[in-house]
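Handout, tutorial session.
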Amino acid sequence: MRKLMVAACGSMLLAAPLAHADVVGLGAHVSYWDSELSGKATDNGDVVDVENDLNLDSDSNANASLYFEHPVPVLPNVRLNYTLIEQSGRGELGANFGGIDVNTGADVRSDLDLEQLDLTLYYEVLDNWVNLDLGLTARDLDGELIVQQVGGTQASKTEVDAILPMGYVAARFDLPLTGVSVGAEGNFISYSGDSLHDFNAYGQLDIAVLQLRAGYRQMSIDYEDDDESLDLDIDGPFISAGVVF
């Protein structure tokens, strides 16, 4: 996926409408995502089910975002987003996986770490009671799945390390005079059999500079690098709190 053409990304950004905010805006959010994991991992042709075989369960999720909007024409607005997902579990392999021979012990301890940092450049296409943003995201994705034989020395490591250009879209509908709104936003890329989609939908309440959200987030990763691959779905409800100026 590193081979995605930079020229294509530049063309998408230049094609965006040159809308801009009326005033300078700054906002920050932190959130808790109660995510569940399903899917599979492949290592040299061996396949493991991360939910049923490894029994991975969420240990912690860290999510934070920061955005800056300005009234300068042509220049895009900027958004940073950070997500860390850590899951671990103890399970039993039904077949050999990544050098782990089930004949010498099928009990395994597994740890999954997924870390991503997004830099998004976007334009405001609409900015009234209907809000629409379009842009591009550069996502630095770093992931590692370690499966370790319990009571033994055999282990498998499946890694993801990529910087991905992704499309970005966000829409929000404000209910006049209520401080209540509903919205959705997402990033997406699909190329040569690999894909990554990250979407969420939410309800929002604004109280002065305080912004509260509750919603549902779903992320799908289908990534292959030589003989290793991850095909994962991570989803669940989230809540967030932020301030806007």
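The second record follows below. Compare its token runs with those of the first.
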Amino acid sequence: MIVLAAAALVVSGCTTTITGTPTAGVSEQLGPKGPVPAGLERFYGQPLTWRDCRSMIHDDESKSAFTAKGAECSLLSVPLDYAKPDGRTIAVGVLRLRASGEKVGSLIINPGGPGGSGMSAASYIAGKAKKTALVRRFDIVGFDPRGVGASEPRIECLDDAEMDAERVAPSLDTVPEVEAENKQFADKCVQRSGGAEVLANVGTRDVVRDMDVLRSALGEEKLDYLGYSYGTRIGTAYAEAFPGNIRSMVLDGAVDPTEDPVRQGINQVKGFEQALDAYFGQCGRCKVTGKPQLESLIRPLEDKPLRVGDRSLSLSDASTGIAAALYNDEYWPVLTQALEELAEGKGDTLLLLADAYLGRDDKGEYTNLMAALTAIRCVDEPRITDRGQLAATAQQIAEGTKGTFMADTDPPLPALDTCAFWPVPNTSEPHQPKVAGIPTLLVISTTGDPATPYEAGVNLAKDLNGRLITYRATQHTAFLEGSSCVDNAGVDYLVELKLPAKDLIC
């Protein structure tokens, strides 16, 4: 990405806007607003220079999102290390679609991951919300968290060829082999992402500080935020760090902040198993009618991947493609097609599903989603480095997921994972959020959510003293996904601060 220098004149003040040429952009200084932490004045009060987003396109996803009508983009300057505010700075990509009517504020969005592009999400969500008051009353704003997407420096681990090769490589059977591969991956992340100092500062702890800088630079006294999936972790961490800076917050598809990674993983496997059962339960005319038949189709792929053009469908990719289609029951017809093709010896649709999940386009180029996901998790969560714990942990996972489809296709080994070889310590750990003084927030949880199971949302609503919307469906996240019950409640809250009178079931 080319970082363009600001060419428009900036005049001090809170609302001054100077219009420049389309290539130079429009520089706008609206901050500082709200409390400014000591030493960070130049960041909280910085001007943002808004330009046509096309100069920041870096992959197929951004090409589609960044060419949306009315989209404008900027770069936010933040410290790499907030403990050293006078040291190295990095750039956070920001995309905005202006409110079409009387403005309430800026609604900042994160779609999850970790590693998902908030810039692309803002464009996508604005499209889905075009008939609601959200786009009339809010600037819709998305940012790519540090290390992600259009932000610089980017987290990079494997190149495109290495990603392709890893997907079709045979499973490793021994602990030393697995650990050697995990260490090599961690080493490449360090080398290709700009060193250990970059990786030490890509966690949620630092993302929420960036988000508060963005709030101020956008000229907002208080934050309005919509977070999906991992984005709920960002929201929870922001509420802890800046409890007095919140106006509204919708958290959909919650990550339970008290759960350790092992328990979280077990619950997710069970969630996908529940979704797979629901899929087969409604699949009366399907040719693949249940898990025994499904396993008989994909098991041979471990030893003999299925040719798909000049590529191959591995067991790993088949499992990934199936999981991708279980995120939403709208994708179930695609899953039916994919499994019927597999029964006929074809793997085209399953491979496309796996490609979409892993961020690969039809040119063979990957987004940095999976690299960022690993790097962020390695500094967000405690890791196991004590070999004495490994066997017990592997047994806990095996017992907790026994008999599930995903566990049977990927049995655990008592090996140190990638994060055990990470060069920097974790900066967060599971805990009960301390959020005294926050306003009442809105949490949405879906009963059949495979990726972030329903109880996680119930627990988060209790942890944050929030209002809970329960959505009865099988899908991951619900807001702006077609339920008028969920959508109306969410929009009323964000725009008018009107909460449901009590916990709501949709």
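Points raised in discussion: Confidence is low (pLDDT under 50) at residues 1-23.
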